[in-house]
Specification:
The structure is a homodimer. Chain A has one domain: Pnp Oxidase, Chain A, CATH 2.30.110.10. A 6-stranded antiparallel barrel of chain A has the order 2-3-4-7-6-5. In chain A, a hairpin with a 2-residue loop joins β3 and β4. The radius of gyration of chain A is 22 Å and the shape is globular. By secondary structure, chain A is an alpha+beta fold. The interface between A and B is large, with 96 and 96 residues.
Chain lengths: 227, 227
């Protein structure tokens, strides 16, 4: 309406760049922020790539998301975290999160596939030095693994914070890829006698195993039972 | 015994290199071939890292193991596969496989962790051009996902083989990392009222979903039911 203040709409998608435009299967790529956030929020283990002496290194590590920022933490001796602190203006990284949802079994070996959702983030990782941001980042990583856990644990003390390094990676250059649905067999293969379909994958949790030295009577917290 | 022929023992471990010696948590690293093979054989999705224009790229993809060789396949248009075919003597890659076994919930935020098993392979990826090796590699990838499936599907034809690129990565520079067991809390934290222990993770399969156009009466194969 004329004269009415319109808030600037929050962009719903990440910009497409040379690094995030796919070379193939373009129909599977998405830059939708809500989809990217949902995929990231369902996980807590990423694969972090960086370059050392010209060669790639890929390490599994925990992450936490706070709005449009991802945090990764580790020992101050960890190589990528140390490198991020020593690289100006930041360490080039690629952070990837993948969920496998099902196995796609086609009649032809060629058309076998998996159903999955993945997010790939490109950018520069910056060493987090501000104590408040660092503390919030560590909380985000713990709550990413078990939502609600931060409020039910002893916060990091100064010595522990000093022993921990944190990097931040902004969600600027991001793409999601997904495959869903059934088999794409060739028409001439449909009469073959092989079973064809999708085998869904299930993830879940077993029974919580309390520590032997846990105070007797300590109940399993609601946020664990809810997982 | 003197005079008795002794076969050369198969080396039980990968050599330690500058790239596979850990910077920290050294007690978690292993170079044992049997452990590495077991971790690789339990999975079928890896995260493949390579360098493009000086920056790292990490993509999830399927793999198959044949002895001391890993194969990755994809479209001939796939960037890392295309790059491997154009790079002499091969494309530097890092291939990582990770299994998450449990969430480790300590009384202190700092000592939270996960139980996991991972394998990191460094090396050069070579474009596979020999038709027989290529076909065997594709079989290995399919059987890695569902053992026994290759024998129950239509083999790739010439056109499909031509549309598929395969790279090989030899298992030379390899390390495994694992964390198992319970919580490592500080002695002074043991009396805190927080629940502490391990939440095991479970992976499994749902009910197979047959394609709508599957011939009526096609049974679910034994190798699927056995998963």
């Amino acid at each position: 309406m004329q004269g009415t203040h319109q808030p600037t709409p929050r962009p719903a998608a990440y910009p497409v760049t040379d690094r995030t435009v796919p070379t193939r299967a373009a129909q599977k790529a998405s830059y939708d922020k809500d989809l990217v956030h949902a995929i990231l929020d369902e996980g807590y283990v990423c694969h972090l790539g960086f370059v050392r002496d010209g060669a790639p290194v890929v390490l599994p590590t925990l992450y936490g998301r706070v709005g449009e920022v991802l945090y990764v933490h580790g020992s101050t001796g960890s190589r990528p975290l140390r490198m991020a602190g020593q690289t100006d203006p930041g360490l080039p990284v690629c952070l990837t999160v993948t969920h496998v949802d099902g196995l796609v079994l086609a009649r032809s070996a060629f058309h076998h596939s998996i159903n999955y959702r993945s997010v790939v983030v490109h950018g520069l990782a910056y060493d987090v030095t501000d104590p408040e941001e660092k503390r919030a980042a560590l909380d985000a990583v713990v709550d990413q693994v078990v939502p609600g856990r931060v409020a039910d644990s002893r916060p990091a003390n100064k010595k522990e914070l000093a022993a921990t390094a944190v990097i931040r990676l902004d969600l600027n250059e991001v793409s999601a890829k997904t495959r869903t649905g059934g088999v794409n067999d060739e028409p001439e293969d449909l009469a073959l006698p092989h079973w064809a379909g999708v085998l869904p994958l299930r993830k879940g949790y077993g029974t919580p195993l309390p520590e032997a030295d846990l105070a007797p009577g300590t109940p399993v917290p609601d946020y664990l039972a809810a997982l």
